[in-house]
């Protein structure tokens, strides 16, 4: 059974995460310090949904359930389960009728983005989505610099192929600056990727 | 915390489920007896993916993780978790660039389909998807009769409204026959919903 813990991070249940976000917002005047990319994207997607701009959700973490208890008069309790490797990307949804699909990753590196952040399954999924005419990309964050870029899946696939044919195992910062689209940190749509999609696909 | 066990069914891990499907296929000459709607749809979606017809996945079951153990030299074990109510539908993906989104439900009833099979959250999600120009529907199975129908979300929403304004809490079989699209059980694309989508939206 293929199991792993997706990002090596401590799991924060939703309620706690939300409180954390609320507190952060209050204490740090909406700065991004300490917020994960996932938290920023959740806020962005919630904003898109509320404003009827787009409907995008993060998929639940895939879990292989092994044992479930059914106590009398209370909810079923999962007593043994394992994290599974995702077979798709984490985010998908609809924008103006079009299918959009992306993965979001961050790195502590400053000079390059390691490709080990992606799995073979996810790369295959991106290829399938592109073939089906979907809009597919990755959102890459350089955590230390707090810089976020959108890179189209077609470019990521080229770098993946370069690695597979013996080339470097990362994308250089220069390559990302050249081919990707910088997303400045916003206020409500914190990572306003839809604006980039609009420009790229002339949807607005 | 809102928790529930999605369909009141015993959980079958993937590996076991696949074996079960394989055995069923062998022993019952591809008849549908005993196969769940989910199993049929997984086979259908796998076929669509292999043939590059569409890319549709079932979302993982949402789970609220409470406690995780990290044993030395082995995979993280989830020791306490609960089933959460889904905030979206179970299936989504891309077909010819368009976003498609659906929920699949079955009933033991013969004369009507109870609306309690759907949750308020899912209904809101369907409204949002339609507003964004996505293709949204439900797949309804009458288990005893082994009859499967595709009903567009716009129709489901009308029946939901009827219930909310004091009307009946189910859709009659006649209404489903009249407004829905019967999907005959197929061989490889067992529940060939894409064919209906093609007809409805002139995508082919």
UniProtKB/TrEMBL annotation, chains A, B:
It holds the Pfam family RecU. NCBIfam families: PRK02234.1-2, PRK02234.1-5, recU. GO terms for cellular component: cytoplasm. Its cofactor is Mg(2+). This is Holliday junction resolvase RecU. It is an enzyme of class 3 (hydrolase). Belongs to the RecU family. Endonuclease that resolves Holliday junction intermediates in genetic recombination. Cleaves mobile four-strand junctions by introducing symmetrical nicks in paired strands. Promotes annealing of linear ssDNA with homologous dsDNA. Required for DNA repair, homologous recombination and chromosome segregation. Keywords: Cytoplasm, DNA damage, DNA recombination, DNA repair, Endonuclease, Hydrolase, Magnesium, Metal-binding, Nuclease. One of its GO terms (molecular function) is nucleic acid binding. The keyword Hydrolase applies. The keyword Glycoprotein does not apply. Binds 1 Mg(2+) ion per subunit. Its EC number is 3.1.21.10. Its main location: cytoplasm. Mg(2+) binds at residues 88, 90, 103, 122. InterPro entries: Resolv_RecU, Restrct_endonuc-II-like, tRNA_endonuc-like_dom_sf. It comes from the Bacteria. It is found in: Cytoplasm. It catalyses: Endonucleolytic cleavage at a junction such as a reciprocal single-stranded crossover between two homologous DNA duplexes (Holliday junction). The record marks 105 as: Transition state stabilizer. One of its GO terms (biological process) is DNA repair.
